[in-house]
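Q: What residues go here?
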């Protein structure tokens, strides 16, 4: 059987590539064996190990479309957080394990997770404080994008709905002069300013789970932060109160305190919602 020049060249190229492919495969196997040996050594040398049961889901990979839990055995050390354990699992066992994290100092709010049946920040949660094995899932009541990553778009939309920015009636005359605030007023709103937009409170709220239009505790807290600030313009405050007193605003809250219980920054969210209810009532009272 005769072959064309192109076919002969293609065959020669494949033949030349085969040894290289074999070397790459061999190198990959050697690295895998080396990594397995390192893991075995780390586990054997560790005084204690902890098992993670991690939720897995990837809609883009056919064999991973069905949600499941994968187990990872982690060498435990004092001070280890849930985020530390997840990073170890990703770096050592499965590089496709997906989760959000950034500052690792409980400031960015990106690593909110559902750990042992409760909303928590991965970087703030110590493994020693949890029951083992540790079960890690994405935040409930939100669409899962992949593994532990959820779609936060709706949460951000609700936060923006309360228009979270200052709009004072007057600004200082001096270019570098600051807007002064009474210390008592600062103390009043101080806790509300701690919000890191992690979404834990929204995920824990049964009302938000059943009412997609409900502003939610985080957004209402953000409205509180500006409405109760004495530097806010009076007209702007009235507009802000009208936003939160609408049908899917503060009156949808059933005072279950679930948002307050899971807030990683200890913000009294339920109290702030109730105070905005009182402000709304006073704002609508008319005396003849």
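A:
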């Amino acid at each position: 059987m005769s072959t064309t020049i192109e076919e002969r060249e293609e065959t020669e190229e494949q033949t030349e590539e085969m040894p290289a492919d074999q070397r790459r495969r061999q190198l990959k196997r050697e690295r895998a064996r080396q990594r397995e040996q390192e893991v075995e050594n780390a586990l054997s040398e560790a005084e204690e190990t902890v098992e993670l049961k991690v939720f897995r889901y990837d809609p883009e990979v056919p064999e991973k479309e069905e949600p499941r839990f994968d187990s990872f055995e982690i060498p435990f050390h004092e001070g280890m957080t849930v985020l530390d354990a997840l990073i170890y699992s990703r770096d050592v066992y499965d590089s496709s394990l997906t989760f959000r994290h950034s500052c690792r100092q409980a400031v960015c709010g990106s690593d909110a997770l559902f750990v042992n049946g409760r909303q928590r920040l991965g970087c703030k949660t110590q493994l020693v404080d949890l029951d083992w094995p540790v079960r890690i899932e994405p935040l409930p009541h939100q669409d899962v994008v992949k593994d532990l990553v959820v779609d936060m778009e709706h949460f951000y939309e609700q936060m923006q709905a309360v228009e979270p920015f200052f709009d004072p009636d007057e600004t200082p005359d001096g270019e570098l002069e600051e807007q002064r605030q009474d210390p008592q007023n600062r103390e009043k709103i101080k806790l509300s300013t701690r919000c890191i937009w992690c979404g834990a409170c929204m995920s824990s709220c049964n009302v938000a789970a059943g009412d997609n239009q409900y502003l939610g505790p985080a957004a209402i807290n953000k409205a509180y932060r500006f409405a109760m600030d004495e530097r806010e313009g009076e007209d702007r405050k009235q507009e802000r109160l009208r936003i939160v007193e609408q049908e899917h605003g503060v009156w949808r809250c059933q005072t279950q305190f679930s948002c307050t219980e899971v807030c990683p920054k200890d913000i009294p969210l339920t109290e702030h919602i109730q105070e905005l209810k009182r402000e709304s009532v006073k704002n609508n009272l008319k005396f003849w």
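A: Context that may help when evaluating the design: The domain at 152-170+181-284 is CATH 1.10.1060.10 (Fumarate Reductase Iron-sulfur Protein; Chain B, domain 2). The chain has a mean pLDDT of 87.
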